[in-house]
C-alpha cells in the first residue's frame, strides 16, 4: 500500500513534466497541424539553460533557493522562448502551406541541429547537478517503508499547476487565446478577419517553448543529471502523451502526460526498468487502435 | 536592411550568449562555468553578416522566382541522360576507384536501397513511416541469429530475412494502418523504438548492447573470400593472389544487385494494378474505398514489401559488418532514410539515388569536422527543405498511356494523408 | 411486382442527438433513374453514405437484389465489398478524383478488382506471370469506351486534376461505371455545371440507364438540386425533408404535391447535415 502510494506520487510528478512538454506539442499541432519534432530538443535546451543559470547564480553568490529558482525559471523560459520563435521562423514559416512532409523533415533537421549544437557548445558529457532542495515530508510509514513527498516534487506540482492555470486562462479568456483558437479552426478565414496569423503562430511556439523550458528545469532538478540526448526520448513520450490525451486538447495533454508518467513509474516499479519505454509506447499503440482520437479528443466524423 | 540584420544579431546573441558563451564543465566539486566571449562574438557576427548578405542577395534578385515546374522539367530531362551515366559509373567503380571509395560506395548503395524501399511506402502509397529502421534491424538480426543458430549461409538467409521483415511489417501494420497521417507516423516511430529497446535488453538472444559478432561473410557459389587464400577460397579457385579487396568488391556488387532489384521491382509494381492502387490511395483514400479497393490489404502490401527490402538491406548490413549492435538502428537512421526519400522527390527513383549520394557521400566529406558533422547535416536538411520543399526531382510519369507520356507536375499530386 | 433493386426499409441515422435520417423507406427499381430530392439538410447525402457503406446506419435495413436474384444486406458489409460484390458505385458531391493521375489511370484504378483478383496474383505479375497483360489490355479497352462515351478521349493522358470542372464530373461518372455497377449513386452530378453541360449530363445518364451508346448499363440513384435535370430524366422521385420522406412518385405527381411545394418554399438555406 505504502509502496503503491509512493509510486503514485513519483508517477504524478513525472507526469507533470511530460504534461508540460505535451502542451507545446498539442498547441502547435492544433494550430498548424504538424508534429514539431524539435520541441523535445527545445525542452533539452531549456534544461541546459537552467543548469547554466543555476550555476551562474550560485557563482554570483545568490544563496536563496527560491530566488535562484525564480530567476532561473524566468531566464530559461525567456531564452527557450527565443529558441522556439527562431525555430518556427527559420524552419517552419517558409514551408507553411507547402507539401505536408517538408515541414516534418525540416523539423527533424532542426531537432538534429539543436541536439548537436548543444553537444558542440556544452560538451557531450553527462552533466550532474547537486540536489538543490533535499528532504521532504514523510507522509506515512508502513513496514519500515516511508512514503516520501520531497520538497522538489511539491515544487514541481505547484509550479506546473500554476502555469497550467495561467495558461488555460490565457487560451480561454484573452483575445490572444481567441485568435489562437480561430487560427486552429480555419487559418485562412482567421486571416481574412484581420487576425495576424503569423504572429499568432509565433506566439504559440513561444509559449510552447517557454513551458518546455520550465519542464526542462523541473527535469534537471528532479533527476539531477542531463545530457544533450534527453530531448528525444522525453519528446517522444510527451508526444505520446499528447496523442493519448487527444491531440489538440489542452486538458488532454496534461491528462495524457499524467497517464504516461504513471504507467512508466508503475511499470518500472513492478515489472522492468529496462522496458519502461516499451510500456509507454505500447500503451500509445493500444490507445490509438481502440480509441484513435485519444482520451479527450474530438471524435471527427469522416466527411465524405 | 541594417536594422533587420542588427535585430537578427540581437536574437542570435540571445540564443548563443548563454549556450556558447557559458560552457558548463564538470569540475572537481561542482559544475563550473567557463566563459567564451570570443566564440559568441564570432557566432553573432556570422549571423549579422549572413543575414545582411541574404537580404542583399534577395534585393538584387527581383521577384522573378524561377518557375518550379520548369525547373523540375529540365531536371527530369537531364535525368534521362543522367541515369545511364550514373549507372555506368557505379558498375565500373571497382575498376577505377580505391578501396576507400568502394567502401563509401557500399554505404551509399545501402542507403539507396533503403531509400527505394521506403519510397514504396511513403512515395507511392503515401504512408508516413518513421520507424523504417525497425525492419532493417529485423533483417540484420534475423540473419545473424539464423546464421549462428542454424549455420545457414548468407544466400539462404537473405530471403528469410526479407520474409521475416515483411512478416513483422504485416504484424505491425495490421493494427496501425487504419490510423491516419501523423498518428501513423508516431506509432511507427514508437514501434521502431520498441524493437530497438527489446534488442538492447534481450541480452540472452541478441547480446544486448554488446551486439553480435562473428556473423558469416557471404560466399560466391560456395567460394569464400579471405586474406589467406587456401582451398575453397575465391583466390584459390581463380588462381589469383588472395586479397581482402576481393571481398569488398564482391560486397559492392552484391549491394548494387540488391539495390537494382529493389528499383526494378518498384518500377514494375508501379505499372501494375497493385502499384496503381497504392498511388490512388495516396491521392484519395475515400475514393479508393468507393471503387471497391480493399484499403487495408493494399496498404499492408505496401508496408510489407517496403519492409522486405529493408530486411534484405539489413541482412546485407550484417554480413558486411560481421558485427551488429542496437546502436546501428536508432531513430536517426529512419530519419536519414526518410530525408533521402523526401529530398530526392517523393516517388522519384533517380531523385532518391541522387539524394543518397549527396547526403551520405556529402556527410562523409564532413567527417573531418567530427562533431560539427551532424550539426551541418541537420542544418542542410532544413536549408534544402526551405529551398526545395518537394525535393530535387518531383512530379510523376504516368504508369500507362495511350499517346506520349507527359510528366505530371507535383503541384497536382497529393502527398497522402495516411 | 418484381423485387426492387434497392429496398430501403426504416433507415435511421443518428449523430449524437441529431437525427439526420428518420425511419426512411423507399425503393429503387432496376432499369430506372430514381432521384432523391429535398431542401438542404434533408439528409440526402447521409442516405447515400449509408447505402455506400461510409456510415453504418443506426437502424434499418438496406437490401440490394441483383437481376439474377442474388441479394445483399448492405448494412452488414464492409465498404469496399459494397462496390466489389454488391456492385454499388458512387460519385461524390465534392469531386474526388485521383488528381495527380491521368484520366486513363483513374479509369484503370476503378478496375482494380478485375485486374487483381488476389494479392498473390498481383505480386506474381511482377515477374510477368498471372496472365496480367491480357487483363490489362481488356481494361484499357473498356477505359477507352468510357472515355469515348464521356467525351474524354482527347484528354486520356492528362492528369485528372488539370481537367475543367465539367470534364471532372464526367470522369468521375466514367470511373464509377468502370466498376460495372448494378446501381450507380450520383451525389449532385449537375452541381456547378452550365446549362449546356447539364443537358449533356442528362443525356449521358439516360444513356447509362438504357445502355445506349455506352459500354455498360446501370440503374441510377441520383441526388440533385437542379430540378430541370431531375424532372426531365427521373422515372421516380423521392422527396425528403428533415430526414423524413414527404412524397414519393413520378415527376408529374411530385410537381403537383402541395407538401413538396411547402417544403421547398418554406425552407431557408441551412447547411446540409454532416454532408
Description:
- The complex is a heterotrimer of chains A (304), B (418) and C (275).
- Chain A has helices at residues 2-32, 39-59, 65-92, 101-122, 151-173, 175-185, 187-192, 197-223, 230-245, 250-270, 276-290; strands at residues 127-128, 136-142, 145-150, 225-226.
- Chain A is mainly α.
- The termini of chain A are far apart.
- Chain A is globular.
- Chain A has a domain at 21-229.
- In chain A, 73% of the residues lie in helices and 6% in strands.
- Chain B is mainly alpha-helical and 418 residues long.
- In chain B, helix 5 (99-124) packs parallel to helix 11, helix 6 packs across helix 7 (154-176) and helix 7 runs antiparallel to helix 14.
- Chain C folds into two domains: 1-87 and 180-275, P-loop containing nucleotide triphosphate hydrolases (Rossmann fold, 3-Layer(aba) Sandwich), CATH 3.40.50; 97-179, no CATH class.
- Chain C has helices spanning 44-51, 79-84, 103-109, 112-115, 119-124, 132-149, 165-177, 195-210, 227-233, 251-256, 258-265, and strands at 6-15, 18-28, 33-37, 59-65, 71-73, 88-90, 183-187, 219-223, 236-241, 244-249.
- In chain C, the strands form two sheets. In chain C, strands 6-7-8-3-9-10 form a six-stranded mixed β-sheet, with helices on both faces. Chain C has a four-stranded antiparallel β-sheet with strand order 2-1-4-5, covered by helices on one side.
- In chain C, strand 4 and strand 5 (71-73) form a beta hairpin.
- Chain C is globular.
- At the A-B interface, helix 2, helix 3, helix 4, strand 1 and helix 9 of A face helix 1, strand 1, strand 2, helix 8 and helix 15 of B.
Supply the key terms.
heterotrimer; A: 304 residues; two-stranded antiparallel sheet; 11 helices; globular; C: Rossmann fold
Percent helix range of chain C = 25-40%
* CATH fold topology of the largest domain in chain B: ABC transporter involved in vitamin B12 uptake, BtuC
Summarize the helix and strand pattern of chain C as letters.
Answer: EEEHEEHEHHHHHEHEHEEHH
Provide the CATH topology of the largest domain in chain C: Rossmann fold
For CATH, the homologous superfamily of the largest domain in chain C is named as P-loop containing nucleotide triphosphate hydrolases
Briefly note the structural class of the backbone of chain B. mainly alpha
Q: Mean pLDDT across all residues of chain B, rounded? A: 81
Q: Any idea what the CATH architecture of the largest domain in chain C is? A: 3-Layer(aba) Sandwich
Radius of gyration of chain B: 24 Å
Tally the beta strands of chain C: 10
Q: Describe the main β-sheet of chain C briefly.
A: 6 strands, mixed
Portion of residues in beta strands of chain B equals: under 5%
Amino acid at each position: 500500500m505504502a509502496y503503491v502510494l509512493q509510486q503514485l506520487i513519483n508517477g504524478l510528478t513525472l507526469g507533470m513534466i511530460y504534461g508540460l512538454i505535451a502542451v507545446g506539442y498539442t498547441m502547435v499541432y492544433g494550430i498548424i497541424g504538424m508534429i514539431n519534432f524539435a520541441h523535445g530538443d527545445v525542452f533539452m535546451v531549456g534544461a541546459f539553460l537552467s543548469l547554466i543559470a543555476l550555476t551562474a547564480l550560485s557563482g554570483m553568490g545568490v544563496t536563496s533557493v527560491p530566488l535562484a529558482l525564480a530567476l532561473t525559471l524566468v531566464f530559461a523560459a525567456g531564452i527557450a522562448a527565443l529558441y522556439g520563435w527562431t525555430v518556427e521562423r527559420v524552419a517552419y514559416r517558409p514551408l507553411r502551406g507547402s507539401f505536408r512532409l517538408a515541414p516534418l523533415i525540416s523539423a527533424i533537421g532542426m531537432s538534429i541541429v539543436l541536439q548537436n549544437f548543444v553537444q558542440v557548445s556544452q560538451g557531450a558529457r553527462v552533466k550532474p547537478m547537486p540536489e538543490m532542495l533535499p528532504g521532504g515530508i514523510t507522509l506515512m510509514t508502513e513496514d519500515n517503508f516511508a512514503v516520501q513527498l520531497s520538497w522538489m516534487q511539491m515544487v514541481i506540482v505547484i509550479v506546473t499547476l500554476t502555469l497550467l492555470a495561467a495558461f488555460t486562462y490565457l487560451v480561454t479568456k484573452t483575445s490572444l487565446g481567441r485568435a489562437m483558437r480561430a487560427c486552429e479552426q480555419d487559418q485562412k478565414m482567421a486571416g481574412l478577419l484581420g487576425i495576424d496569423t503569423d504572429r499568432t503562430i509565433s506566439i504559440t511556439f513561444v509559449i510552447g517553448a517557454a513551458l518546455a523550458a520550465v519542464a526542462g528545469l523541473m527535469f534537471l532538478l528532479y533527476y539531477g543529471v542531463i545530457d544533450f540526448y534527453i530531448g528525444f526520448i522525453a519528446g517522444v513520450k510527451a508526444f505520446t502523451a499528447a496523442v493519448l490525451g487527444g491531440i489538440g486538447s489542452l486538458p488532454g495533454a496534461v491528462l495524457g502526460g499524467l497517464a504516461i508518467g504513471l504507467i512508466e513509474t508503475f511499470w518500472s516499479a513492478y515489472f522492468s526498468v529496462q522496458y519502461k519505454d516499451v510500456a509507454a509506447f505500447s500503451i500509445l499503440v493500444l490507445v490509438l487502435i481502440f480509441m484513435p482520437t485519444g482520451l479527450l479528443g474530438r471524435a471527427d466524423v469522416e466527411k465524405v | 536592411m541594417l536594422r533587420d540584420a542588427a535585430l537578427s544579431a540581437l536574437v542570435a546573441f540571445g540564443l548563443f550568449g548563454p549556450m556558447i558563451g557559458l560552457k558548463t564543465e564538470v569540475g572537481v566539486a561542482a559544475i563550473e562555468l567557463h566563459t567564451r566571449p570570443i566564440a559568441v562574438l564570432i557566432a553573432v557576427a556570422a549571423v549579422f553578416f549572413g543575414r545582411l548578405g541574404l537580404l542583399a542577395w534577395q534585393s538584387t534578385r527581383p521577384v522573378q522566382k524561377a518557375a518550379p515546374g520548369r525547373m523540375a522539367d529540365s531536371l527530369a530531362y537531364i535525368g534521362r541522360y543522367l541515369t545511364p551515366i550514373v549507372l555506368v559509373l557505379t558498375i565500373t567503380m571497382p575498376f577505377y576507384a580505391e578501396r576507400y571509395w568502394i567502401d563509401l560506395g557500399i554505404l551509399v548503395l545501402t542507403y539507396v536501397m533503403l531509400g527505394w524501399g521506403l519510397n514504396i511506402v511513403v512515395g507511392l502509397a503515401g504512408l508516413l513511416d518513421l520507424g523504417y529502421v525497425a525492419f532493417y534491424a529485423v533483417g540484420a538480426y534475423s540473419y545473424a541469429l539464423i546464421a549462428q543458430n542454424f549455420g545457414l549461409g548468407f544466400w539462404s538467409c537473405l530471403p528469410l530475412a526479407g520474409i521475416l521483415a515483411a512478416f513483422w511489417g504485416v504484424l505491425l501494420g495490421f493494427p496501425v494502418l487504419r490510423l491516419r497521417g501523423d498518428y501513423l507516423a508516431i506509432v511507427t516511430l514508437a514501434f521502431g523504438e520498441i524493437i530497438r529497446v527489446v534488442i538492447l535488453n534481450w541480452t540472452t538472444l541478441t547480446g544486448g548492447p554488446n551486439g553480435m559478432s562473428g556473423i558469416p561473410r557471404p560466399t560466391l557459389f560456395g567460394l569464400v573470400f579471405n586474406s589467406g587464400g587456401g582451398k575453397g577460397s575465391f583466390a584459390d579457385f581463380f588462381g589469383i593472389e588472395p586479397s581482402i579487396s576481393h571481398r569488398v568488391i564482391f560486397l559492392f556488387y552484391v549491394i548494387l544487385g540488391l539495390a537494382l532489384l529493389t528499383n526494378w521491382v518498384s518500377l514494375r509494381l508501379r505499372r501494375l494494378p497493385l502499384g496503381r492502387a497504392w498511388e490512388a490511395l495516396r491521392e484519395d483514400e475515400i475514393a479508393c474505398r468507393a471503387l471497391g479497393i480493399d484499403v487495408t490489404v493494399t496498404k499492408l502490401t505496401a508496408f510489407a514489401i517496403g519492409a522486405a527490402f529493408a530486411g534484405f538491406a539489413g541482412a546485407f548490413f550484417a554480413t558486411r559488418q560481421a558485427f551488429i549492435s542496437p546502436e546501428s538502428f536508432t531513430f536517426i537512421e529512419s530519419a536519414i532514410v526518410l530525408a533521402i526519400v523526401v529530398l530526392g522527390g517523393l516517388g522519384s527513383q533517380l531523385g532518391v539515388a541522387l539524394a543518397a549520394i549527396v547526403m551520405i557521400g556529402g556527410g562523409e566529406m564532413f567527417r573531418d569536422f567530427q562533431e560539427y558533422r551532424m550539426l551541418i547535416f541537420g542544418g542542410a536538411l532544413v536549408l534544402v527543405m526551405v529551398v526545395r520543399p518537394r525535393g530535387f526531382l518531383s512530379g510523376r510519369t504516368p504508369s500507362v498511356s495511350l499517346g506520349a507520356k507527359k510528366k505530371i507536375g507535383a503541384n497536382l499530386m497529393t502527398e497522402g494523408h495516411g | 411486382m418484381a423485387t426492387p433493386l434497392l429496398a430501403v426499409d426504416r433507415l435511421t441515422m443518428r449523430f449524437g442527438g441529431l437525427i439526420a435520417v428518420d425511419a426512411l423507406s423507399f425503393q429503387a427499381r432496376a432499369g430506372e433513374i430514381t432521384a432523391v430530392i429535398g431542401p438542404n439538410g434533408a439528409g440526402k447525402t447521409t442516405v447515400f453514405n449509408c447505402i455506400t457503406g461510409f456510415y453504418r446506419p443506426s437502424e434499418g435495413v438496406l437490401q440490394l437484389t441483383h437481376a439474377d436474384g442474388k441479394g445483399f444486406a448492405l448494412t452488414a458489409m464492409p465498404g469496399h465489398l459494397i462496390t466489389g460484390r454488391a456492385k454499388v458505385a458512387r460519385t461524390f458531391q465534392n469531386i474526388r478524383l485521383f488528381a495527380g493521375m491521368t484520366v486513363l489511370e483513374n479509369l484503370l484504378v476503378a478496375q482494380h478488382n478485375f485486374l487483381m483478383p488476389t494479392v498473390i496474383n498481383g505480386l506474381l505479375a511482377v515477374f510477368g506471370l498471372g496472365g496480367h497483360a491480357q487483363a490489362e489490355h481488356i481494361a484499357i479497352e473498356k477505359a477507352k469506351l468510357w472515355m469515348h462515351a464521356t467525351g474524354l478521349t482527347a484528354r486520356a493522358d492528362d492528369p485528372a486534376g488539370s481537367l475543367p470542372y465539367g470534364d471532372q464530373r464526367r470522369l468521375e461518372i466514367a470511373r464509377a461505371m468502370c466498376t460495372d455497377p448494378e446501381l450507380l449513386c450520383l451525389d449532385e452530378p449537375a452541381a456547378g455545371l452550365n446549362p449546356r453541360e447539364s443537358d449533356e449530363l442528362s443525356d449521358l445518364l439516360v444513356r447509362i440507364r438504357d445502355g445506349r451508346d455506352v459500354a455498360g448499363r446501370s440503374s441510377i440513384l441520383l441526388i440533385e438540386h437542379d430540378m430541370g435535370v431531375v424532372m426531365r430524366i427521373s422515372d421516380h422521385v423521392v422527396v425528403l425533408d428533415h430526414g423524413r420522406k414527404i412524397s414519393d412518385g413520378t415527376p408529374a405527381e411530385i410537381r403537383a404535391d402541395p407538401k413538396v411545394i411547402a417544403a421547398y418554399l418554406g425552407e431557408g438555406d441551412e447547411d446540409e447535415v454532416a454532408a
